[in-house]
Structures are given as C-alpha cells and as structure tokens.
Amino acid sequence: MASVRAASRLLSKRVLSKTTTVPAASVQGSRNFHFSIYGKKKNAKVSDDISTQYPVVDHEFDAVVVGAGGAGLRAAFGLSEAGFNTACVTKLFPTRSHTVAAQGGINAALGNMEEDDWRWHFYDTVKGSDWLGDQDAIHYMTEQAPAAVVELENFGMPFSRTEDGKIYQRAFGGQSLKYGKGGQAHRCCCVADRTGHSLLHTLYGRSLRYDTSYFVEYFCKGVIALCMEDGSIHRFRAQNTVIATGGYGRTYFSCTSAHTSTGDGNAMVTRAGLPCQDLEFVQFHPTGIYGAGCLITEGCRGEGGILINSEGERFMERYAPNAKDLASRDVVSRSMTIEIREGRGVGPEKDHVYLQLHHLPPQQLATRLPGISETAMIFAGVDVTKEPIPVLPTVHYNMGGVPTNYKGQVITHTGGEDKVVRGLYACGEAACASVHGANRLGANSLLDLVVFGRACALTIAEEHKPGEKLSPLQPSAGEESVANLDKLRFANGNLRTSEIRLNMQKTMQAHAAVFRTGSVLKEGCDKMDAIYQTLDDIKTFDRGIVWNTDLVETLELQNLMLNAVQTIHAAEQRKESRGAHAREDFKDRVDEYDYSKPLQGQEKKPYDQHWRKHSLSFVDPKTGKVTLKYRPVIDSSLDEQDCAHVPPAIRSY
Amino acid sequence: MLSSVVAKRLVTGVCQAAWRPAVTGLVSSRGYRGDAPDDTRGDLIEIPLPPWEEKADEPTDIKRRRLLYESRKRGMLENCILLSLFAKRYLNTMSENQLQQYDRLINEPSNDWDIYYWPTPDVYQGEVMDMLKEFTKNRNHEQRLDAPSLEYLDKESQ
C-alpha cells in the first residue's frame, strides 16, 4: 500500500497543472473576472458586444462539446486526439457526471464466457427496441462494441478479468445467444462495481494529455455559457458542436436520475427550431425504491432476487415464463403495474410491490450486493436480510432525444427525407440515433456513449480539419439568452421555481407514467400547457450573479418544461403500445402489417395509418405550442450481406 | 456553541487533514459486483488526475454559495438527496474551518459513491464527517423522499 502511495505521488508530479485564472489585463470595466479553465488554456477576449451589464468573454475553438459525461468525454477525447482544439463545457466536474451512477457495465460480444457473435447482440437490441430502433445505427453500435471495449482497455480502463486473464463478462437482462434460441448470453463487461466512474476517470485523465480545455461548472444555454464561479458570460465559437448533455428524468416526480438530469441539450435544440425525436419513450426501471426513487440495480434480480405481490407470488413467472424476473425492463414494469392495478399491490395503499432478497444466503448478499443493503436501509429503513424492499417502476432513462444518423450528425426531416444539420452533432442519452428505439436494454447505454461519442469525433475529423476558419459570428449572438438570464435573475412574479417544478413533476407522474390512456393523457396535455404558461409568472429570490443556484435551477426548469410538453403531447398522439410506451386504450403495436399473423394475404398499411415510425416534436418556446411530425424507421442494416436486418415480429420473452 | 470535546476533535481533524493522496486508501463496497473479480484500480494509479486544491482567497460567503451548488448537484440521486438535506441543516451555520472540511469531503473524492459509502481514510475524519455520518443514520426517522427546494434560503433572509 505504501509503495502504491509513493508511486502515485511520483506520478502526480508529472501531471499538468490544473487551472489558470485569467490575467487582470483582459478585464474591462469594474467587473472582476476570475474564472478557471482546466487543461489547455488560451487567451480569451472580453467585450460588451451583447450588453454593458453582462460583458462577454469570447472563445474560439475547432469544436465545442457540451457535457462531460461518458459520451461528452469520449467525443472530446477523440477530437483532441485528432488534433482539434477542443473545449468541453460542463455544469459539473467530469467525474461527477451522472455516468458515475452506472453500475451495470458495457455489452460487447467478445465471446470470453461462451461463444458469442455481435449479430446476436444486434438481434437482441433490435428486438429490445420493439422494432423502432434504426437498424443501421444498431448494426454500427453492436459491430463496433468489441473494438470499443478493447480500445477502452488500451486507454487504461481496468476491466474485471477471468482467471485466464480475459475480460470477465456477466449476464444482463434481454441478452441472448443464437438469435434468442440459445439461452442467456454473458456479454456485459464491467470494472468491478464502478464501471461508470472508471469510464469517466479514464477518459478525463487521458484527454488532459491532449489539448482539451475544460470549462467546469459553466451552465450552457446554446452558444452562451454562464460561469458559476464569477458570473461571467462566455461565448464559444466553433465550427462543430457536440451535444452530450444527458437525459431529462427530472420532469417526473419520481425518477432514479440525479437532480442534474434536466434535458439541457434537448432544450437547446428545440429553441433552435429543430426537432426532438421519440420523447414519449421514457424507460421505467422496474426497481426504484418506493418514495425516494433510488435505483435498486437489475443485478439483484441477476443474483436471484424476485418480485412478489401481496399474495407472496413470484408473479413474473406468469408474464414472462422463460426470462421471468430478468425479462426486458418494459415487460417487467408493465407486469408490476398490472399487478398493482388488479389489487395485488403491497403497503397500506397497495401501490407498490416487493423485491425479495432475504431468501439468498447473507454471505452472497454481503459480497455481491453490498451497496444495496446500505441504500435499502438509508432510504427505505429495510434490512434486506430479513425484509423485502418496497419498489415501484421509476423513470430511469430517456430513449428519445436529439435525432442523429449513425455517424452522430444531427438530422431533421424535410421533404420526406432526412437532412443533416451542418456543424451539429449529438451523442449519449441526449441523442437518439436511434439504437434503443422504444426500449433500452440494460448495459447498452454505456456502450451507446462510447461508440457514438467516438463516432461524432470520427465524423468531425473526416469532414473538417483543425484550424479551419470560423464562419462569421454576429456581434450580438447570444443576446436573447442573456436577456432571458437577466429576466430570470430579477423575476418577481407569484410562483416560486420550486412550485412550478413540482406542478410539472406531479402532472407528468400522474398523466404520463407507465400506463397511459387517452383521456388521462389529454387532461395531462392541457394541464402541462397551462403550467408552461406559468413560467411567465415565476419568482426567483437570489439576485446575485456568483454561484447563483436559484438562477441555475430556474434555467434548468425552463429546459425541463420544454422536454415535458413534448413528451406528453407525443405520448397522447401515439395511439399504440410499443416498448416503454404502454397504452390501456391501444394495447397492441400498430405496424404496417399485423405480425402476429402470417404476412401472406395481408395488405400493407399506408404510412399514415400505422405507428412504426419516429415522432419528431417541435415547440414554439414563446407559446409552448407543440407540433408533431413523423419520420420512418430505418430498417436496413449497414451491410445486408454481412448482417441481415431483422424483420419485425411479435416480441415475447 | 462548540463543546470542548468537539473543539478538540475539530482541531485534530484539521491537523490530520494535511495533504495525503487519499485515492488508494478508499474502501470499495458498493453497487453490484456479482461474480466480478476485485477492482485493480489500475486507472486510478496509472492515470492520476490533477489533485484537488483548496481555493485560495475565497471569501466565506462565496464559499458557502459554491458549496450549496456542489451539494445539490451530484453524480447520483442518493448523494443529491443526502447532501442537499445536510446542506440545508448545516451549511449556513458552519464556521470557516468546517466549510473547508466539507469542501474537501465533497469535492476531493472523484467517485461520488465513495462519499456515499463513508470512506475511512484519516484525511476525511473530523467533525464534519461525523456530522454527515450521524445525519445519514437518520435517528429521528425523518422522511427522506427528495432534495429540498431552494426557497428555505429565501425565508431565512426575510
């Protein structure tokens, strides 16, 4: 231990110095600037092009990445490695991004535990997406997966190993062998129990050796960012922008996400007049702690934990005879909700179910699920060796987001065709490639981050060179954002930020949760539209400009609201059940054919009469009005010879 | 307000807080490990991140405001709830020394899970760590359903 400490002290001497403060010479007016930039520092220019009250610091880069989670770091690292002068702007320290919460692992068909083939992973993912995923993007992701994991290993990520020294892989829900016919697959690679943290640490550490400039604790709003440390406004000019801002779980009252998941990237894109895709597809994780919403990992069920109802029955045996408690998340969430609605819920209000672990040997619980005992005790007051944990399906992941193609380029859909939006890219949970379609499989998300983070960097490197001349920027660019900031900072209406936020969260929870139905959704849409209007009557209390948490949370609320209205309107419009979007009034999938019967003799439904298509939602930020369009699913893989696409079928586990 | 026992512990905590790389001594017991072999921590050793440094010359009130933001915005929900509730209870009445301890406690560890699972290295021992541990135990069985909304600060200033 001592020798390891000595070694790390030696190594730390060679590390790049961390921060610099901007020299006083570039300061204008009476404002004192003392913002910090980690990594590579460049001279920044201060001006009052936008307003004399809010002097702006201008920066120029080849590429800007918004967000420093797994996807953002991978993109920033890839760009810096390729020689691009890259800025990464983040509202959190990189290793504190929500990626750190990831406990599962990364799926890749390495074949270390049994014979495996990425095409089987491809099949599992297409099926898991309920045939809403774009098969070219899924092909890209699953084929690249083994190479991506090996690449991370070479960067220094210490994957857990088998005794032979190969990367250890474990089982995870929804993963099978031989196109669903060969039993459970073991293809989830992990770093003990801190895969998310290790990914962040490795990528952040490596990227510091290249020319990446990190703007940490800056809140981005389009091209403009607010530096929390000194309240200065920063403007980033770059030919290429990558959005990697994560999901928006916080639109709901109960979710497993940190309070930082506020859909900032989706909102930026919406304000730019571009669409967001498939926002109605919100994944509910079967086992969030009843009340606080903290996640109880799927690994519990992997270890033998079972879900039971008020009669003590292991009800998953009825809903998924083969996979049982390890069926796909949407199947398990729906089953739990049906049990509750049919009166077999537990607790005084019969509004949740139990996750039972006490039938497992205490030794196994202690060594393989140590953290669960802590969480169950702290947030539910439960001793897992004696009692079951109260759980409920809880908002966990957003399959929808900024639409991109398989190269990470943001697209929009005009004239019946996909069109690339030049200079804009997106990756990670913020994007919708779409690899997860209507439902995401566990351990595919971390894979999504690294594959598409890398794809964005590769695409930019293919199409651009470092040091390219920037398009001219209007001197007043960002004016609206600053005006909005100023307005919020001094807002003195009648409703506090927390009140409006709670109204939104409770409405979404009551009207757009696991089971949805027409009248409830419609009522929700009307309520949400009304709540959107109340933003004009908002009241903030902190008038300062340095570390103004109230202001940040209000900006985040604006972002959340844009995500919420799109989610509920898209859900109300989609009259079918698919993946995570389950409707009581339209219980089945509405595809172009009825795939539960033989296709022969069936007439193909026209495009506007079936629902196997992506939703594209737009919002007019001034009025809150949502418009919906649709875009076809990409059914062909990148190479039909190498990997045939999977035609739609009925999805059962 | 500080009893002599607590004051003594505070002083010891500050003295022990002389810089030592704490990364390699952290206890690791969290989440789902299953069959996976132990963590070699290769990345933490081979790719050291720039060490955390205390912000010099930061006025106390600014430090308090920064620590509020950094308590509420964490990597996972568990810490968001615990630290924002803790901040609501204690942050506005902490002394400069306690603020420095808290700053180190929540900002130095790079893995948020390490804060949640109470790391034991000496460098974090001290009054604030004890306060946090005690707070987490929740002897009064307070409801811990979510992080508090910010407006408690507004009421205080009225």
TrEMBL record, chain A:
PROSITE patterns membership: FRD_SDH_FAD_BINDING
E.C. number: 1.3.5.1
SUPFAM superfamilies xref list: FAD/NAD(P)-binding domain, Succinate dehydrogenase/fumarate reductase flavoprotein C-terminal domain, Succinate dehydrogenase/fumarate reductase flavoprotein, catalytic domain
Binding residues annotated for substrate, in chain numbering: H285, T297, H396, R440
UniProt-recorded name of the protein: Succinate dehydrogenase [ubiquinone] flavoprotein subunit, mitochondrial
Requisite cofactors: FAD
A Pfam family of this chain: FAD_binding_2
GO MF, one example: electron transfer activity
Record's keyword terms, sorted: Electron transport, FAD, Flavoprotein, Membrane, Mitochondrion, Mitochondrion inner membrane, Oxidoreductase, Transit peptide, Transport, Tricarboxylic acid cycle
InterPro entries recorded: FAD-dep_OxRdtase_2_FAD-bd, FAD/NAD-bd_sf, FRD_SDH_FAD_BS, Fum_R/Succ_DH_flav-like_C_sf, Fum_Rdtase/Succ_DH_flav-like_C, SdhA/FrdA/AprA, Succ_DH/fumarate_Rdtase_cat_sf, Succ_DH_flav_su_fwd
Catalytic activity: a quinone + succinate = fumarate + a quinol; (R)-malate + a quinone = enol-oxaloacetate + a quinol; (S)-malate + a quinone = enol-oxaloacetate + a quinol; a ubiquinone + succinate = a ubiquinol + fumarate
Reported function: Flavoprotein (FP) subunit of succinate dehydrogenase (SDH) that is involved in complex II of the mitochondrial electron transport chain and is responsible for transferring electrons from succinate to ubiquinone (coenzyme Q).
Origin species: Lates calcarifer
Automatic annotation (TrEMBL), chain B:
Lineage top rank: taxon: Eukaryota
GO BP terms, alphabetized: mitochondrial electron transport, succinate to ubiquinone; mitochondrial respiratory chain complex II assembly; negative regulation of canonical Wnt signaling pathway; negative regulation of epithelial to mesenchymal transition; tricarboxylic acid cycle
Pfam families: Sdh5
Location, primary (coarse class): mitochondrion
Annotated Gene Ontology cellular component terms: mitochondrial matrix
Subcellular location: Mitochondrion matrix
Keywords in alphabetical order: Chaperone, Mitochondrion
Its biological purpose: Plays an essential role in the assembly of succinate dehydrogenase (SDH), an enzyme complex (also referred to as respiratory complex II) that is a component of both the tricarboxylic acid (TCA) cycle and the mitochondrial electron transport chain, and which couples the oxidation of succinate to fumarate with the reduction of ubiquinone (coenzyme Q) to ubiquinol. Required for flavinylation (covalent attachment of FAD) of the flavoprotein subunit SDHA of the SDH catalytic dimer.
Similarity remark: Belongs to the SDHAF2 family.
Name of the protein this chain belongs to: Succinate dehydrogenase assembly factor 2, mitochondrial
Species: Lates calcarifer
Lineage: Eukaryota, Metazoa, Chordata, Craniata, Vertebrata
